[in-house]
Amino acid sequence: MAHSKKDLKDRLTRYRQIKISVIGRKSGQTISIPVWLVLEGEKLYLLPVPGSDTQWYKNVLQNPSIRIDARGAEAKLRPRQSLRRNL
C-alpha cells in the first residue's frame, strides 16, 4: 500500500475515479463508494455525478470528514464545499 503524498497525487492524476469513505448521517456507520474526481493543481474536486442530491454528498455536509483511496494510496481529508459550477 502506498503511503506518501507523492504516491497519492500521482494516482489522483492518473485516475478519474476513487473510492471515498464517509460517515452515514443517520446510521453513523462508515460507507464506502466510488466517485469521480478532478484534480486541479493542489485542489481535489469530488463530483456528485447525479448532483448534490446524492446520499454521500449529504453525508459529507453533515460530517465533513472523508477518507479517500486512490488504488491503495489513502488519505483522510476535510472537504470544503465548492460553489464552482463550470466544470
Quick structural overview:
The chain is α+β, with helices and mostly antiparallel strands and 87 residues long. 21% of the residues lie in helices and 38% in strands.
Explain what you see.
- This protein has 87 residues and is α+β, with helices and mostly antiparallel strands.
- The chain has a single domain (5-77), classed as Electron Transport, Fmn-binding Protein, Chain A (Pnp Oxidase, Chain A).
- The protein has two helices and five strands; from the N terminus they run H-E-E-E-H-E-E.
- The protein has helices spanning 5-14, 55-62, and strands at residues 17-23, 30-40, 43-47, 66-70, 73-77.
- It has a five-stranded antiparallel beta sheet with strand order 3-2-1-4-5.
- Strand 1 (17-23) and strand 2 form a beta hairpin.
- The N and C termini lie far apart (31 Å).
- The mean pLDDT is 83.
Low-confidence stretches: none
How many strands in all?
5
Order of helices and strands: HEEEHEE
CATH class: Mainly Beta
Radius of gyration computed on alpha carbons: 13 Å
CATH architecture field = Roll
> Share of helix among residues?
10-25%
Q: How would you sum up the global shape?
A: globular
How much of the sequence lies in strands comes to 35-45%
CATH superfamily, by name, is: Electron Transport, Fmn-binding Protein, Chain A
Number of domains: 1
At the fold tier of CATH, the topology name is Pnp Oxidase, Chain A
Q: How would you classify the helix and strand content by structural class? A: alpha+beta
| Strand line-up across the major sheet | 3-2-1-4-5
The pLDDT mean sits at 83
Number of helices: 2
Sheet having the most strands:
5 strands, antiparallel
| Termini gap | 31 Å
